Amino acid sequence: MYKKFFGLRESPFKVNPDPRYLFLTPGIQEALASLAYGIRGRRGIILLTGEVGTGKTTLLNMVLDWLRQNRAATAFIFNTHLTTSELFECLMADLGIPCESHSKSEILMRLNRWLLDRYSSGQTAVLIVDEAQSLSDEVLEEIRFLTNLETSTEKLLQVVLSGQPELEEKLRQPHLRQLRQRITVRCKTSPLSVEETQGYIAERLRIAGASNGPLFSPEAVESIYRHARGIPRVINVLCEHALINCFADQQKTVTPEHIEGVAREFEMDINTVRTTPLSAHQDNLTSVEKVLRDLSSVLERMRQPASLPVGSEGKL
């Protein structure tokens, strides 16, 4: 209802993980580079962790779009309250592998043959598991066993385990040490600094079509950072409702008062200690600079009004 008033094409602060709105901070670029490096290098198990609301699922959706445009086979599991049999059902269904049998041995043989065929064709298969901290120990062990599907030199199935910091705690348990030892790449998402918060807000507004100058005063941005402590999901909640309140007041610029009102409405604790701002740093994974350029290109195409169809020439 406020889009026309502010000159926006769409709502810029929805909390759904739309990869078009992925904000490429140095930390996110490093995580993207690590994910790309692990997948392209067939490293097996890759671990992505981060606090709630720091953009893990948005990042994973970006990686999924990149993989699909490169014709990689993908399976994405987001409901992790699964039994072992349900894990295999989801995996086979997402990869499009028909298997009438419910026998675990038959499923694994069918999966192994399918993966070998893809490997022979130079193609990649990737299993991505979101909210992996909720997986049972039994299912985590089954995922470890899946990495036993390999040639003499490379893994046939690449696995990305994504979850909250509790996932790292779970993997430290002695009985999961074999799985922990097979993690070859680790990456993280982190809260934004105050400068990144300002850039994050400006970039989302730009993508949504804002062209009439800043909609948030500098003081409002500082208030957002103080309440959200750099967590993108909380930033979105604050900004969305602040725009609604600003529209109700028929004002063109969001002020700190609007932010404070939303913070009170959602009972956000302003006395919580601030997260330490991230220091600026350069991406040191130069070996995958081309992949990062490809990912940035995918992101730009997704942001175009008439984006290119999914599926590009070339393989991972």
Main sheet: which strands, in order across?
2-3-4-1-5
What is the helix content? 40-55%
Mean pLDDT comes to 88
CATH architecture of the largest domain: 3-Layer(aba) Sandwich
Shape assignment: elongated
Percent of residues in β-strands: 5-15%
Q: Total number of β-strand segments?
A: 5
Number of helices: 13
For the sheet with most strands, the description reads:
5 strands, parallel
CATH class assignment of the largest domain: Alpha Beta
Distance between the termini: 43 Å
What Rg is obtained from the alpha carbons, in whole angstroms?
A: 21 Å
Succession of helices and strands:
HHEHEHHEHEHHEHHHHH
Task: Report on this structure.
There is one protein chain. The chain has helices at 3-6, 26-40, 56-69, 84-95, 104-120, 137-146, 165-171, 177-181, 194-207, 218-228, 232-248, 256-265, 289-303; strands at residues 45-50, 73-77, 125-129, 157-163, 183-189. It is an alpha/beta fold. The chain folds into 2 domains: 3-19 and 193-265, Helicase, Ruva Protein, domain 3; 26-191, P-loop containing nucleotide triphosphate hydrolases (Rossmann fold, 3-Layer(aba) Sandwich). Strands 2-3-4-1-5 form a 5-stranded parallel β-sheet, with helices on both faces. Helix 6 links the parallel strand 3 and strand 4. The protein is elongated and about 65 Å long. Residues 270-287 and 306-314 have low confidence and may be disordered.
